[in-house]
Each structure stands twice: as C-alpha cells, then as structure tokens.
Specification:
Six copies of one chain form a homohexamer.
Chain A (H helix, E strand, L loop, with lengths): L4 E2 L4 H6 L4 E2 L3 E6 L5 H14 L5 E5 L4 H9 L5 H6 L3 E5 L2 H10 L3 H9 L3 E5 L11 H17 L3 E7 L14 H4 L2 E10 L2 E11 L9 E6 L2 E7 L3 E2 L7 E2 L1 H9 L3
Parallel strand pairs in A: 3-7, 3-8, 4-5, 4-6, 6-7
Antiparallel strand pairs in A: 1-2, 8-9, 9-10, 10-11, 12-13
Chain lengths: 256, 256, 256, 256, 256, 256
C-alpha cells in the first residue's frame, strides 16, 4: 500500500522521510525558541504553493500576519503576493474560535480550506490551546478533536509547539499531543566546540519507514538546509553531548 | 508444571520469553510515542488469528477502528477482512463503559469475548483509565478490578500504556499497573551514533524464566523484527547510553 | 548474647546474615515490580514449614490465595497442601481489618497466629496501609503499631513493600518504615551488558553483624539463588552502573 | 532585503551579529546576578548616544536613577550629563504604570519616546512584570502587549531579565518571553580552572544569520569586552564544563 | 581559651575532634536507617557513665526502653544495670511533653537532669518534633527553644535525626537544625566494590578546629570503630563514588 | 572614579577584591551550616574596630549576644570589651522591629548607627526575614527596602544568609537578594581526597574589577585564612569535583 507524500521541498529532509510527510497527516513540530520552527513551517507552505501547486493556510494565534510576511521575505519568500494570488491565507485567530469553527464545520476557516482547495495547513501554535482549560484530560480531548477535524478536511498539517527545553535532556514529552499525531519532529540546540548548533530528528512517524538520524541543520538565507549526522558525538539528545572516546583518541593519536 | 504459551509469532521475541506469553495473563506494554506499541499489539492480534487461529478483540479509547485498519494495512495485515470473517472485533469505547460492562459481566464486550471465543485482547490504552478518578488508591483498585475481569475471561491481554519518558532514565514506574500485571514490557528510544534506535525489554515476567536482554528492534514493512543486544554499550536504560570503555579502546587500538 | 536465627533455607543468603533473620524481628523487603519480592517471601514461608517445621501465615491485600498457590507451584512449592496440613494459612484481608484485629488482640489473625503456633508471617504488602490515611505522621504511627503487634506475637515477619524505583538511583527512602524495622532488604534491577540482572542487598540489620555485599541473584525453577558480588562494577545502586576503569583496562590490555 | 542594524559599539559583539541588533527589534537579555546585564545594557545606551547619535530611554523598576549614574560612572559613562543634554532619560517607574502608559499611547513614556526621538530603550527588568498576575497565560499576554507597544514605537529595545540559574544546566526557559522576542541573549557564569569566567551567547536571532559561538567576555574599566570561544571545553552550558578529552591528551602528551 | 571536652571514648573518633565534643554543646547526628546513629549515641552514653563517670539521660519518642536495653546488650552494654545504679535514665516520652517540661523548667525531665547530675543527653529523635507543627518557621522556633533549654541545663547532647537520603548526593540540609546546633555529624552509606560501607564526617563544629576527613567506620561486636579515610576515592558524598583516575591507573599499570 | 574600600583585614581576601568591599555597599554572604559565615562576619567587624577604627553593629535574630562573645573569644576577639568601650553594639532583635525602626528612621538601631558613628554592620541573618511574608514579591520589596535603608545610613554591611545546599551543585539562587545587593560572596564545602575542604568565591561585585578565583580557605585559631585556588580540579561548584584529566595523567606518568 502506497501513501502519497507531501514534500517539504528540502531535498535532504524529504529524503529522510521517504519522500515527504504522509498526505492528510497531522505532524507535530516542537522546538525551543529560535530553533527554526516557524521558518521550517513557512518553507513547507511556500514550497507547497510554488513548487507543488498546493494552496496553504497559516493559522496564527500570537504573531500578526505582517510579522509573517516580514520574516518570510528575509528568505525571499513573498507570502503577501501568494495571498494576493489566492493560493495562501494567513489568518490571525484565537484557539477558541478556531476550535469552534472546525467543530461546527461552517466557520470561516473550513470555508477557506474547502474553497481554496487548501492542501497544507500550519497552526502556530498548539501551545495556545493550553489557555482553554486547566484540566489535562479535557485538554487532550480538545487537541484530539482539533486534529481529527484537520484530518477530516484531508489537509496535511504542521502543528507547531513551543518546547521550553533549551539544552537539557530530551527526557519527557511536555504534552500528550505526540501520542495523538502521526509524526513528531524535534528541533533542538546542541552545544559543539563552544558554539550552538541545531539538530533535527523525526522521533515518530506512523506507518512509515524513515531515517532516524539526528541531523545537523542550518538556517541560511534560502531557508533550512539539512546537513549530515553529528559524527563522533554521543548524547546529543541528553544535554551532555560529548565526543565519543573513539573520536577523541583518533583526533589525538590518528587512526590505526 | 507447564503453562501454555501464547505466541507473538515473532520468532526472536517468542524465544526471549520461552515460547510466548503465559496463557490467561495480563501483560503491560509501555512506550513513548512512536516506539511501536500499537504495531506490536496489532501483530500479536493478527498473528494470533492467522497463524494460531485464536480470535482477537481490540478495545480502543481514542483511535477510530478505521485508523487501525489503515495502519495495519501498511504491514499487509487486513484487519477489516478478519473482522468480516468473525475472527476479530475492533471496538471503539470509553473506559467507564468498558469497566462497567466487564464488572456486570453481561455487557457487549463480555458477550463478544464469550461468543467469539476470544483468546487475545488488546486495550489501547490503560492511560485513559486515569480520567476516571483523581485518587491514586481508587485508580489502582479500578485497574486491578479490570485486570481481574480480563483474567476471569481467561484471555491473554496486552494492555498498552503511554510512557511520557522519551529518552530520560528509566527511573520510576509511572503507574501502579506494573505491580498488578503478570509481565511488563518496555519499548524505548536509544540514541546511538547520532541516530535513534529502538530497544525492547521484558522487565518483569511472573512465574517464568525469560531472557532479560535489552534487544534492539526494527519496524519493517512486515512489522516488528527483534535483533541482537546492544553490544559494547552501557546505560541503555539510563538515558546516557555510551560505548563501554572496552569497546572504545578496541575500536581504536584493535583487539589484543 | 546470642539471638536465635530464622533461616531462609537459601544457603548463600543465610550465610550473608550470619545464619538467618533475627527471631521475632520485623524485616522490610522492598523492590520494583518483578524483582522477586513475593518469590523470596514465599520461599521463606515454604522452607520454614518444610525444612524447619515453623508454621507460617501469609496476609495478602491484593492477590487472591489462588494466585499464591499457582505462582508457588511454578517452583514446586505446594502451598495448598501445606494449608490443608494446618501448617500454613493464606489470608486475603485488607489493611483496616488487619490492623484492627492485631490491635484488639482477639481477631481471627491473632487466633491463627496463636493456635497454629505461627513462627513466620508475610505481609503483602505494606504499601496498602497508605490508603488508610493521607497524614504522614499518622501513617508512621499506624505502621509502628502494626509492627509492634507482630513483635508482641513473637513472629519473624517479612513485610513486602513496593518500590517505584525501576533503575534510578537508590537515593531516598520512600517511606518511614525502614527507620522502624529491624532489617531492610533491597531487591533491585541492574543493567549489565545490555541485559537486566537482579541485585540483593541488606542495607540495615539491627543488632547484628552481616555481609554488606551487593549480590547478584537469579530466579530459577527452584526459587531464588544468590550468586557472587558484581565484580569490576561501580555505581550499582546509583542507576549508572559501569565497569570500573581498572576492569576496563584489564579487559583490553590484560593484567600486568 | 536588508534591515538596518543598531550597533552595540562593541566591535567583537557587533561582528557576532552581522553588525548589530535589528532596527525596531525587541531583544531579551538574561543572566544570573552579577553577570553584567545592566553593564551591557548601559553600554548599548551610552554608545548609542555618543557614537551613533541615537537618543535613549532607561525604564527602571527597582534601582533609582542615582544608582545608574553612579554605576555608569565607574566605566567613565556620564549618564547625568547626557540626560542634561536631552539625549537620555532615566525613568523610575513600576510595571503597572509603564504597561498602562504604553497601552493608552498618551502617557509620559510614549511622549518621551516620541519627543526625544528615542531610538533605544532599556527595560530593567521584565522580571517585575511577574508581580502583575499569577496566571501564566495572562502574564504572557501582558508581556506580548508590552513588547508590541515597543515595536509600534519603532525603538530597538533590550529587555533585561533576571535568571535564577547560577551555574546549573541551561535546561529550561524560565519564562515565555524568549518565544515572543526577536533575539535572546544569555550571559552566564562558567567555572574554568577553579575560577569563574563569563560567557555570552546569542541563542536566538530572528530573521538573521549570526554567529552561534559561546564567547568568553570580561568586564573591564571600559565596559564589556568580548573575547574568544572557550577552546578545548565541552558542556559550557550544561553546568559541568570540562576539558575535551582531546585537549586533556594534548596538554599532557603534546600534539602529534 | 580552652573548652572542656566530652569524650565519646572511641579513640579515633575523639582524635578527629581534638578530644571530644564541646562541653555543654548540642550536637546533631544524622543518618539513613541502619547507619548506626543509635549505636553511636548509646556508646556515647555508656562510655560516659562507665569511663568518665558522667550520668546520662536517653529521651526516646518511638522505641521502648526495653528495645534500648536489648540492642545495647548486643554490644555488651548493660544499660538496665546502669539505670538501677542511678547513673542512667531511659525515658519514653513524646515531643510535646518533652518540650513543655523543658520550657516550664519544673517537669520530670529537668528534675532528672538536675537530681542525677546528668552530663550527657540523647534525644531519639528530633524528627518527631516535626509532628508538632506544619509551619516551618514555627518548627525552627520550637527546635531552637528546645536546644536552648538543653544548653541552659549545661548538658552535652546528641540529637539524633533521621535522614531519608540512602545513597543519593548529600546536596541539601533536610531541616534547619544544622544551622542551630554546635556540631553536625553525618553517617552515610557508601558503595565500594559492590558492597555497602559506612562513612562518618563532622561537617560542622562550632568554635573548634577539627579533622574534616570522611572516615570509614564499622559496627563491631564492641560498638563503633572508626577506620581510615576512603583513599583513592572521589565523590563519596555525591552518591557517585568512584576510584580516582590516578588510583585506577596505578592499580593497573603500577606506580611509576 | 575611585571608591573608598572597606577592608576585611584578611590580606589575601582584601587582595581578591582590590583592597576591600566598596564603602557604603550591601554585601550578601551565603553558606551552608558550618562554612564560617559568622566567623568571617565577626572578623570583619573586629578588624574594623581594632585595625581601622570603624565602629560596628551586629544585629542578630537568633543567637544571643553571649554566644557571639563566646564564639569570638575562641579566636581571641574580645567583643564584650569592644562593646564596653563604645565601639561595638551587639543587638538581639527580630526582623519586624528591625525593619520598622529602619523605615521610621527614629528607632534604637538608627540611633546607634548615627550616635556611635557606625561604619560596619552585620545582619545575622537575612533568612529570618522570610518569616514576615509568604508572598515572594512582598519579600523582595521588604528586602530591598531594608537594604536601601542600610545604604541611606552609609554603612558597609555584610548580610548573612543561610544556604541549604551542603554539597550539591551551585545551580540556582535561593532568594532574590543576590539581584539587589552590591556583592555576593559564597562559602562552600568541597570534597577533596575523602575530606571536606572549604571554598570561597566572590560571584558578583558591582562596579568593581575583582578576582574571580575559587579559593580554598581555612578557619584557624586566628580566624579565616584564605589560601590558593583548587589547582588541578574541575567542577568545584558543580557538586562533582574531580581531578582534571591532565592532573590525573601527570600524577601517574609525570610531566612531559
């Protein structure tokens, strides 16, 4: 059985996941502040429209659309123009309204999705759903309902979520969403040689074989570029990254 | 005294536990999101029906049956067909109803078990019982009652449970269920050489000698395949996996 | 001054504690799920009756007597037969009743102890006393009263207690019972060479010289067998067990 | 697209961030007590006026202006004189009033900003906003509103924030501000050779390529001076800084 | 200025503290269950009477006097006989009464101290004062009042306190008593070569030079015997004791 | 700009801070029980009077003046005599009264300061202010008000504060005072070679260049003596002090 793939349009990234995200899937993208969540998500939307002709929708709960236009332009992505061409919609909303519209199925958001033929959706960010309730069981139910609604519309979504973990161990999930979604992508800071690098990892990907590498990536003037693994390094996700003893020996004594 | 074994139909896994799970036992299967809990459970049910002619029941509290059919098809397991043949039932329910029906012994679930001659049961997942009460002593009593009901019906059950621990130390049990069940299986992420691998371990197995190895496993297009131990590695369950010093020396200097 | 010893009937274990537990003492046995608490306790009771002609009593708060008979039979111990011969009693009760009967001194349990000439008692488990009160000072007083009652009856008791710590550091006592009892026995998982082994340690033993070794043990078809220390290993109770540097060097370069 | 840069006037620091902070951006500066937050912020304001002719505003919630004049004079920066010349304003206020004035857009602070042509603003410190509410969602909303108001006035701001972490791991963000601001600068103590050094790192910088080095810095009689990376050191942000094995070998055996 | 010393009568221990405890001082003795707190305290009292002719008082809040007589006899110390001779009093009381009697200065305890000419007092244990109040400031005031009362009577006291820390790091004080008392003695488990040893350390000793060694000690049939330091070991109080690298090299390669 | 220095009269200590504390500054001195806070503070006061003719005031909230006289005499410092000569005042008070008197500016304490020409003040300890309120924002405001009052009187103060951290990592500040004061001095236990040593470190010193060394110090019969750095040691403030690898190699193999 073959499932259609929804490409990021980032060659090495798509290769890691056998061509792209699963069509119609909900994908959680978590990272600390500044790790590049929004950049990766915008690139997914922008490439979707420009390279694959798949209309996109960005739902944002805190940043104004202007901030998106502005930030995207840094990478040469003219979102405003795409919006004018009817291929993109950037909506500033709030979690309550968003949830309600998707539940009732007759709200503005659902209309946009259906009328524009939207294939890709960004939600920035799932963190804001936490203001709707203090009850953990209710929150999970809300998140599940919302994710099911996205799947009902058959869009491929990237759900951003803020992760408070800067450089500590990737020890616990910080919400129940990873259990609900189809894939779980982690962006992360890593300290290497007195500098901060960035790592990317697909921790979960339902119903799909994928590369489990922890890859280094850069944010260049053209967006995200995925590089190689962190060779000769252990504990990248533990918060105590260090050279492997092998690597240390080899660096000093040379290879045998 | 010999107890009958209920096989997974996964050769290396069954070998680890002397042939299979104990007939009539309740078995807890825990793991972080994406570690393969549902895949292993579906494989247990599918092989049960196809290889050992033992009817199965899947009780799910969050995923719709369609999701199960869909995910299983990735591995070539046609659950819908088995359901049509009367050898499998996938029930979407909630913890309250499920508990109540098993308590009263005259509910739909008990009927299914008894009429279909169900031998294998999956509960996905025990985590949802936590929404029934905030009192830890009550929760334990509820879990115990439910597990006793399953044993009363003489089915061999795999009880899934979400574990929030992604890559941290396996330090504390996160519920009291491990004290109640007959066996306790842990699936876990392990970082090796800048990639994420998966480990499997039978931490507890009542009344049975079993292999205590921590084994690497893969999810292939045919389901779970169990591989070798993590040779030359320490601290796999500690969250700080590293090469043993021996292994590091040998890699660099060669064996003496 | 010599105190009589109450033997486990497990040679290497009895040797560790100079012949056995102290007559009339209360002994706390803690361990994570599956570490073998119940097996060790049953072996103590079974050997007590069969080898030393000392009648035994098992008080259980969660498992039914049938589970005990069944589990013990795996090791060839026929508890049902011993009960029929009047040398053993397996009582399913609850903490409130048990405490009350021992307090009033005229309950069923005290009668059994006195009429059967009971010398050995198992309580499975002290953990359930925690449901009686949320006040830590009250709980301690309850536990003390119960332990004093056991001592008043001059039985040698093994008090099981669940320990939630799977593989983390043995850092804190998880109750105040270790301060009250005469000895404190810890069973524990240890990761060695990508496998899970079991360790046993007498952390406390009042008024008695004893071996402080951390010993490896196995659960065989005949019950618990105590083996050697974990040679060449550090940090067994720290959750980060590792080869000593000495051991690592010697393994690679050989002994000088 | 090129964004104008607002320089610190500290050569090596400006070089790290491609010339300076982004014009109109909000920048979070966090550090433990004594790491030099206020010194760096004053230097930004002082150089702004003296070197780049950009009027500045300092809003302080705890220190009196006199303390600022006094501390700045240690570095030869005569803030009082700049204030007399109408190029600087040091305002002692409180979070409630400050927030309210910026919201209403007709308060004293907005007047100062607009009349003086203020280009640079220091807020010392954001920590005091926490006294306005105990609700985390409300606090985030307050912080966001305040930061948006600063952006509306098109000033480049440095928002100080106290970080309670002295020498522990940089594991978690201690507020949600890092997710809202455009850049996130961390000052930090590092123990090296039985002495305390200081490190500086730009963890986040929106829409901009920047150096991710963790640099050593000193507070001299002329203010902050940024030095090199911590060569041969791992774990600077982990709280367990140590020599790399390579470095240790080389120090003892020499280079190959 | 020379202060009189109150000897333990344990040669190596008295030598560590320049002859003994300070006359009239309050001394906190903390340890995990089974580390030997009571044994050391009884030895202090017994030697005080037998070797130095200083009458003693033991105030106990949980153990009955009979347990004391019994436990002491294991070491050949006949406390009952000393009590009959009027040189010792073992009082079973509770924290409320004890505190009240010392406050009013006319209770039984003060009478005993004054009539018997008591020079040494054991309180077993300070932990039980915690049941008097849930307010930490009140508790500190209570503890201070009680300790001042002991000083008013000019006795040298050893105040036992349970420490819940089994083998974890000695990181935090677990009460405010260490700030109030004159000296603070820690007994502790240490894992060495797959066995549990015991360590003793005087962390604080007011107004007195003393040895700061962490010494190994044994409980023999004659009581506590203090041995040497833990040579070639680091991190004894950190919970991760290990051989020093030096020691490891020397063990394998020999000394240069 | 040169600020007058207030000397400790401890040569190596004064040298670390370029001659002494800043005149009129508030200085926080923290340490675990027994690390020597009070000794260092008394030495500051005693030397102030005897060597520099600067009258002193000691405000104590828990210890009686007699305890001070007694403890100081151990070092040959006759505080009683200095008090009789009108150069010192030791006041036993409580936080509420102390705060109130300094606020109203007409209380006994302010009179003493002004009439005696007090230049140096000790507050033992700031910890007791925590009993005034449970609200963290109020507490900070109280502490700030009190510290400002001390500065208003232009005295150089040493504010003692109890630190509960015995040997754990110096990870978090335990109050907000370090953010308010002019300097922050930490006294600390360090385990070296199976013994407890003491370390001293000036973590913060406002408006002043100072040595950031972590220095070993001893309490001798003449008071505090500051010694060298901890050479060849890493992680002194991390709670896991260890030899550097370099040091370990050199100790075994000798220098190259």
């Amino acid at each position: 059985m073959n499932v259609a793939r929804v490409q990021f349009g980032i060659k090495d990234l798509d290769k890691m996941i056998c061509g792209g995200l699963l069509e119609g899937s909900a994908n959680l993208l978590e990272g600390a502040p500044g790790t590049g969540k929004t950049t990766l998500a915008m690139q997914f939307i922008y490439n979707g429209i420009v390279k694959y002709d798949q209309p996109g929708l960005i739902i944002t709960f805190e940043e104004f659309p202007q901030q998106y236009y502005h930030d995207a332009l840094q990478f040469g992505w003219d979102l405003k123009k795409l919006e004018d061409e009817g291929k993109l919609k950037v909506i500033f909303s709030d979690p309550y309204t968003t949830l309600d519209e998707f539940d009732r199925m007759d709200g503005e958001l659902v209309s946009i999705v259906e009328e524009m033929g939207t294939k890709r959706v960004i939600v920035d960010s799932m963190t804001h759903f936490e203001s709707l309730t203090d009850d953990q069981h209710d929150l999970r139910e809300i998140e599940r309902r919302f994710i099911n609604a996205l799947k009902r519309e058959n869009v491929t979504s990237i759900l951003l979520r803020e992760n408070n973990n800067l450089l500590g161990q990737v020890s616990q999930v910080s919400s129940k969403i990873p259990f609900i979604v189809d894939s779980y992508i982690i962006l992360r800071y890593v300290e290497v040689d007195s500098a901060i690098e960035k790592a990317l990892c697909f921790l979960k990907m339902r119903g799909s074989d994928h590369q489990k590498d922890i890859r280094c990536f850069k944010i260049t003037s053209k967006g995200i570029e995925v590089e190689s693994k962190f060779n000769g390094r252990e504990g990248i996700l533990s918060g105590f990254t260090h050279s492997t003893p092998q690597d240390a020996f080899v660096n000093v004594f040379g290879k045998k």
